Amino acid sequence: MIAYSADRQAINVHRLVQTVLRHQPAGSDGYPPGRQDAEHLIQRAVSAGNTDTLEWERLLPHVIGLAESTPAHSPTSTETADTYDAAAQYLHHQGREAHTIRLRTAALVQREQALGDTHPSTLTSRNNLASAYESSGDMKRAIPLYEATLAQHVEILGDTHPDTLTSRNNLAYAYWSSGDLKRAIPLYEATLAQREEILGDTHPSTLTSRNNLASAYRAAGDLRRAIPLYEATLAQREEILGGTHPDTLTCRNNLASAYWSAGDLQRAIPLFEMALEQRERVLGTSHPDTMTGRNNLASAYFKAGDLERAIELLETVLAQAEQILGDIHPHSLATRNNLASAYLMAGDVERAIELLETVLAQAEQILGDTHPTTVTSRRNLADAYQDFGAPARAIPLLETALARSQQFLGDMHPDTLAIRSKLAQARQPPTTD
Length: 433
Description:
Layout: E1 2-4, E2 11-13, H1 15-22, H2 35-45, H3 53-68, H4 78-93, H5 101-115, H6 120-135, H7 139-157, H8 162-177, H9 181-198, H10 204-219, H11 223-240, H12 246-261, H13 265-282, H14 288-303, H15 307-324, H16 330-345, H17 349-366, H18 372-387, H19 391-408, H20 414-427
Antiparallel strand pairs: 1-2
């Protein structure tokens, strides 16, 4: 019931044996039999600086198994927490942040018990867990964690400590991700002003704040402020970090997205193509950022009327996203939504509606009623119903979309005006001869 694996690089233990061992009474040191030895072995095997993918993939099941099987009253260990963090960081650098939740949770529990609720390392663990929830699309858990972490940072480290500024930036990003731009933009503006004053105009964290504020302006439809901010940030990142640094690639992709939003496809498409080629080379073909770049390029092809290339690219991205990130990951939902829009534009209305109905149901359940992906899915499904000759099914969706857009973007935002126009069209009675 205990045996080597086929390659003799791991040991397989029958689940019954595992269960018996886990439920053995603790010894005088508080550890169940074998638990402390297992922790020490994992600590020795794991190295935060290790970049050997093959070795990490062998170790991960053991580290995760250790984290999941921690007895309720087992003694705490900051060394074990460090081990969980090292494994989580490996997953993070692989672009698999959403898969770190179990490890981040275990590390936070260890640090809360060993160091206390407000120790800087505990605050870092809490922030990391919030980031993992955010990456998985669970904003209902991410935002309260970010808010609590920021309040504690302000109280313990002060309002302008670099860690406090990072925490404020992270909360702003969570608000932005959930579609709450009214809270995100002022927080981004405050963080940028503080970072410029304390860290300097060209510090990497300042550049991150500038990029994030530009993204918030773009999401709010304020391209006049977004594009110059992106252009300035990209020039600074190229100069300070280099042309192929991941942050530079992100900024280049974001600037291309802003050009796309402004309808300037002649500048957007070459920039998207350059950013994608560099991401494939630097990050790999299946990294989430690479998939985002591929998705964005497909959207640009779509807007340019090149539906054949757009659909081919989106189908590839969706297959990768489902395989690597999962069926209900926010990236998978956004890609599915974009593919449905391409089907709709190509005249394949039935396939588009089927896909959009699935996306909307999943987005409402996973991301919430007001998330940008949910709002976009609702609008696209309404468009599909209208194209299919079913305006009565489109009207309730457009009414909901209009209310959400007025609430979060304002009555005169371009998206709000566009939805209002579509709703008026849907409400028009059919013409008769």
